[in-house]
Amino acid sequence: MSGTDQRLRHVLAGLSFPARRWEVIAEAEHYGPDAHTRRELRALPEARFDSFAALLWALERAQARARAA
After folding, report:
1. Which of 2, 34, 3, 28 is nearest to 15 (CA)?
2. Residue 15 reports pLDDT greater than 60
3. CA of 36: how far to CAs of 2, 16, 18, 20, 26, in Å?
4. How far apart are CA 40 and CA 30, in angstroms?
């Protein structure tokens, strides 16, 4: 399990899937994410995530786009 995976599982432990972007961010904010996690989640596209794996995939794609820019 990667560091990102562990960190997100911790702050999103109460989240039920499917979940929309705003629900992901709201759940994380309820927990109180660190600045890095907050920045990562805010980079997610407006979408509905069917699973935690789909959320991680979208997050990886968002990070790749940010690196390419």
Report:
1. 28
2. yes
3. 15, 22, 24, 20, 16
4. 16
